[in-house]
Amino acid sequence: MSKEIYIEGLGRRKTSVARVRMVESSKSQILINDKPHNEYFPTREMQLIVSEALPKSGVTGTYSITVHVNGGGIHSQAEAVRHGLARAIVKKDIELRSALKKIGFLKRDPRAKERKKPGLKKARKAPTWSKR
């Protein structure tokens, strides 16, 4: 019984979390929640965001990638997958770290929705002020 050796990376964006596993394979494919990535992310823009880390690091065509992603919206999930994929690539080859870091793929984007405060209508929007 042979065990598949995989490299795992965790990516996050807003409330989305993506667990990425890379396995060396002759056939290159990206499966996201058991669907091909071009089926899970219907727009070309999202597909490019997901697979952007591979050509920029020079790792194309040698890995079978499976991803489990949940939470957040579809754009947030695509960026979480890219973050996790970049982290997995760095675990495989530490020399690619500087290139991926310079592009910004290793940084977890900290921007998230600000919470609503008491006495306000939204996070910062105050009710109309009247003198009397």
* Total beta strands: 5
Count of runs of 4 or more consecutive helical residues: 5
**Strand proportion:** 15-25%
Q: What is the radius of gyration computed over CA atoms, rounded to a whole number of angstroms? A: 19 Å
Largest sheet: 5 strands, mixed
- Helix-and-strand structural type: alpha+beta
Summarize this structure as a short list of keywords or feature phrases.
132 residues; alpha+beta; five-stranded mixed β-sheet; 33% helix
Give a nutshell description of this structure.
The protein is α+β, with helices and mostly antiparallel strands. It has helices at 37-40, 44-51, 53-57, 74-92, 97-103; strands at residues 6-13, 16-24, 29-32, 35-36, 63-70. The mean pLDDT is 92.
Protein model, in words:
With 132 residues, this protein is an alpha+beta fold. The chain is built from 5 helices and 5 strands; from the N terminus they run ββββαααβαα. A 5-stranded mixed sheet has the order 1-2-5-3-4. The longest helix has 19 residues. The model has no long low-confidence stretch (mean pLDDT 92).
